[in-house]
Amino acid sequence: MKRAEVKSQKSEVKKSGLARAVTTAAFLIFYTFVNASTAHAFDFKDVDNPLIQVFLLISFLSFLPAILIMFTSFTRIVVVLSFLRHAFGGQTIPPNPVIIGLSLFLTFYIMSPTINVVTEKALTPYIDEEIDFSEAIEQATPPIKEFMLKQTRQKDIALFVNLSKNPPPKTTEELSMSILVPAFAISELKTSFEIGFLLFLPFLIIDMVIASILLSMGMMMLPPVMISLPFKLLLFVLVDGWNLIVGSMIRSFS
User: Fold this and answer.
1) CA separation (Å) from 82 to 78, 87, 97, 100, 226?
2) Lowest mean pLDDT: which of 151-155, 175-179, 224-228?
3) pLDDT of residue 49
4) Structural domain spans, the chain
5) 153 φ, ψ to 5°?
């Protein structure tokens, strides 16, 4: 009986430790992304009630879509793939689950260097109780800012700095996330729209050629999309389109 009780206690300790580690990681990322200045007043290790931990974790999960969209490469990838689908002329090819799934895995691939740095410098030492929460936030913020600044135009940053009516920061380290996040978002949208425009051009030429041929043959009642779609697919396969598009998007973040 004693051995069984000891084993059950050890398993409970492991489970509580795992839950604490997972939830701590979630909140570390959340506070790093939202506002590092407000994180210094809170340490998740001070919350001992498991029910409160679960409640806070569930509350955090509602912010995951916004974090994924606004702080990573997900926006550019999913917008470009959506443009590609519309350029084909097929409303459901590829289907939404395929676009979202591919965008997610490409996002994880692109963000893996940043995630590794945050894990090594901030998350792992904090879970091992080598540093406190405020130090973990200070260590986690620079690599995230570095990634976002590489993809953000200076013009967009200046726009939100001017709108905030605050003195412009002297260095990038002083730039707040409340300015960097929207600037990064509109920069990603602009870049994805530029890529989408380039994707539309070859398919638009095929549509115009097919429409002209059908018009010259007097087949005005036949939708040109029905005829042009096989030629678009043939062109896309011949040039190995998926390799080119995915490779170009990944290289655009380097």
Assistant:
1) 6, 9, 12, 10, 20
2) 224-228
3) 59
4) 1-67, 75-252
5) -75, 145
